[in-house]
Design brief:
The structure is a single chain. By secondary structure, this protein is mainly α. The chain contains nine helices and no strands. α3 crosses α6. The longest helix has 47 residues. It is elongated and about 75 Å long.
């Protein structure tokens, strides 16, 4: 008798699997994609405005923007890969430790699982029965213990390659946005400024689609933060540009 059946017999509605009505918040690709795009746009636009503030030529601005795009995208991908891979390795080590404990002390782990349900308000007799049935299959038992004790799903771990690829591509796209007007022949910062402002607001609005924030609040917040970063680097470029070279 499954947990869903137990709940139904208790007079409650059957539980709907979480994936049916919740967003995917594991961060396999969404988090690095969003952060990559925003970081690429903000960092490369700020870098370019700093160079413009130092009275650099258009050729120098383009070279700076291209270098910032490539270096930043590679750095983001490498960092994301290392971060996710290290996290996955740690999780796998904890899962293997739990697997070993289940083989060495199955009764103790069964009692531990029952206590988890008792702590959540399930009657002791029912909690022990649920724990016994869930522990009948070793792999299912491992999955249940990983979820209840570690808070993870062994079958749904983020992929380092997916995270790195998402981060690389989205950073490159974000970094390309303020550079695009110069590549198309612009000779002033204004077209890049307008395009970057639209991009910043759009990035914030897209983030709002997967959060509880309103699109205008999230978009405006991202625009203000990006404008502040660009303003600081422009000021620094203007202050020290004449003393360099």
């Amino acid at each position: 008798m499954s947990a869903t059946t137990l709940e139904t017999e208790a007079g409650q509605h059957p539980r709907i699997p979480a994936a049916d009505h919740h967003r995917d918040v594991n961060g396999g690709w969404l988090r690095p994609a969003v952060f990559g795009a925003v970081d690429g746009l903000v960092s490369n636009f700020a870098l370019m405005t700093g160079v413009v503030g130092g009275a650099a030529s258009n050729g120098t601005v383009i070279l700076t923007g291209l270098a910032g795009l490539v270096a930043g995208a590679c750095s983001m991908a490498a960092g994301e890969y290392t971060s996710v891979a290290s996290q996955s390795e740690l999780v796998q080590a904890e899962i293997e430790a739990e697997r070993l404990e289940l083989s060495r002390n199955p009764q103790g782990e069964l009692a531990e699982l029952a206590q988890v349900y008792i702590a959540r308000g399930v009657e002791p007799e029912l909690a022990h029965e649920v724990a016994r049935q869930l522990s009948a299959d070793p792999e299912s038992a491992l999955e249940v213990h990983a979820r209840e004790e570690l808070g993870i799903d062994p079958n749904d771990l983020p992929s380092p390659l997916v995270a790195a690829s998402s981060s690389f591509l989205c950073f490159a796209l974000g970094a390309l946005l303020p550079l695009l007007p110069y590549l198309l022949g612009a000779t002033t910062l204004l077209p890049a400024l307008a395009l970057a402002a639209l991009g910043l607001f759009a990035c914030g609005a897209v983030v709002a689609r997967v959060t509880a924030r309103s699109w205008w609040f999230s978009g405006t917040r991202q625009l203000v933060l990006g404008a502040a970063a660009a303003g600081v680097t422009y000021l620094l470029g203007w202050l020290i540009g004449g003393h360099v070279g």
